[in-house]
């Protein structure tokens, strides 16, 4: 919606809906240019609302053809169309059947919200507020209704017509048309409505639930894509089995449909019984998909499936509660993936992701609590904070009360709230009641923005054998929230003896001794924990498994080195290695700024050699340990970021390690070469990741030939892309011929072509901005396709900090130009791309001024979408 005076919606202003809608009967007459939507809403006044509240239905861009109340045509004087597109009915009855007929134009819908066309087929996206672009309706999640949907369309254009629920009849219609009917027995909010129609083909399978119900499973794709659906189908069946086994939750319809579409604003959508997916999270073959894509499919399929209970059966009262379904469902998909592969590696990856996206958000102008207090455009709040930090908060509760009580809490949460739209308090109180543990303090995690910083101090008294650990916490102020209170922080920990073995632990006042990992709870700003009978001076291993989303600061380097080698907790081993490397790198960056020569810390080379020596047991873990801390992670630890300096130091170090450890890296690279058939199990994925980590060092040290040989001989996308991205950083002919060969081979495959764009956008070359501008003008570039837009614009702005922050300001200008061009087409994607410009406070004054100038240039555009307006204005102020 375009508006000059965007309205801020506040959580404190929540009021129950004036009217409820018990049943919805929708009839679609599909046509790309002019689709007719007839809706029959059985309305009644909500007993919980004021009995004189007006009857107002949301609408956006709808052409109203007719409205009837209880069969009688409503005269124009009783219909009030609002400037925002809504419809109010004067003198509303306390109950009645409202029938509307509207016209919409799916083929003109470039925002991809509501009903739109892609490749000649019809798809919908209704979360959060897209249903109002289909028909007039109280488009808010606390209005839950039972839907019947009849779709009529041309038989040739739309042989397949799908909606939510179970199929309920079909037949011939006039001309070459036909109809189908779908009935969804479960009440649902409008954001879960879906319709898919077109020339699609299905990959079919089935699943028998543990109570013996046979469920038909179908993945609907374009003709020719069927052979690439096997992994998605397999992931779906494993998700269904896992949710039964771990949470006792069974699927509740006869049929589960997934439709894949290449024009889609995000990853996927959990519509009841009819998930709609970005093709990126469905289609995979070894030749065309990387191991990362493979894992992404498993995760997203699981995530959307798990929403069936956490989101659909129990939904959100209002959009401020978004993390109620998203944080909980991310937690569930993380647990699923951990059970499917290596728990430790999954945790490391999730923490890496949290630090790369959520920590900067929490430290920047868009910082907001997991449960925000206000928004202008809710689409802007599908953020790493709501999703990833939200999942961490659920994990905190899981850690605090333990897995058995957590499971009881989930049972209680669902039993109490099934078929209702509820709040985060309802979730936390179910966990509290099931566990008997007071969780009041944990609400602070939902309501306070910012990442707590934790420091530790300790003292061992050999005479009394007492060890005192003092923990302190502090959360820096965030925009609009200057005062911060201490939060409950579960700290999973162990004590290591001088030889690295675990020491038994007994807190003062306790009768029994515990060994292994235990969790202590830091609740105040400062708290001391005294351990008694400690036989030797211990070294504490803190925040095992990353038991809380905090920054643990100030662990001395000698301790980090010790923990990286000896700790029993794989997360702390990895983390200590990363923190050690980060601290060395930050020192190098400072030296570089002073114009001093860059030294080299031998311990880093030693760590690489040690990691490789033990790689055989867990190659995936070794690969994680081998990769140096990312540029964003380093920037996040500097008062004033130095993106170019960070990049130069990281490359310098990579090259230096590649040279010094060349022999051992090469030996491992060769030993990890798999000659057998391509396999996608955890071990094979780990071996490829480790081999490519070795290659990255060797190629950065100058061995372009090895990268070229790998590219030429690669039999799978993981190896091909790893080599190509290293070649893309170079200047020679090898680069040009590899990129050309890749383009020639894959130009017909959108998902792979996206990778071709991204690799060039993220390359470490001086001329990258010119290249990015040229790619923007490339015939294969299409701003309307969200995947393609992200693959170039997003990859450059978020994935290439050294060049995005080029001192000329050209990187900022490119991003602003792209946002301005995209906003009228798809405001939601445009708004999401703005993020990197919001980091200006962390940059030097000169860079900051250039960034602000571009934000202002965006804000000066008339008729900006409200999402882009909100993002740009918050980023600027
Ligand atoms: N619930 C959707 C996200 C909808 C985003 C709307 N702008 C996908 C998911 O989180 O499962
Ligand atoms: Zn979700």
From TrEMBL:
Membrane-spanning intervals of the chain: none
Highest rank taxon of the organism: Bacteria
Catalytic activity annotation: Release of an N-terminal amino acid, Xaa-|-Yaa- from a peptide, amide or arylamide. Xaa is preferably Ala, but may be most amino acids including Pro (slow action). When a terminal hydrophobic residue is followed by a prolyl residue, the two may be released as an intact Xaa-Pro dipeptide
InterPro entries for the chain: Aminopeptidase_N-like_N, Aminopeptidase_N-like_N_sf, PepN_Ig-like_sf, Peptidase_M1, Peptidase_M1_dom, Peptidase_M1_pepN, Peptidase_M1_pepN_C, Peptidase_M1_pepN_C_sf
Keyword Zinc in record: yes
Residue ranges of domain Peptidase M1 alanyl aminopeptidase C-terminal in the record: 558-877
Gene Ontology BP term (one): proteolysis
Known cofactor(s): Zn(2+)
Residues in Peptidase M1 alanyl aminopeptidase Ig-like fold domain copies: 450-553
A matching Pfam family: Peptidase_M1_N
E.C. number(s) listed in UniProt: 3.4.11.2
Aminopeptidase N-like N-terminal domain: residues covered: 109-192
Stretches assigned to the Peptidase M1 membrane alanine aminopeptidase domain: 232-444
Top enzyme category: hydrolase
UniProt xrefs under CDD domains: M1_APN
Keywords: Aminopeptidase, Hydrolase, Metal-binding, Metalloprotease, Protease, Zinc
Annotated GO MF terms: alanyl aminopeptidase activity; metallopeptidase activity; zinc ion binding
Similarity section: Belongs to the peptidase M1 family.
Name of this chain's protein: Aminopeptidase N
Species per Swiss-Prot/TrEMBL record: Roseicella aerolata
Upper classification of the organism: Bacteria, Pseudomonadati, Pseudomonadota, Alphaproteobacteria, Acetobacterales
Record gene name: pepN
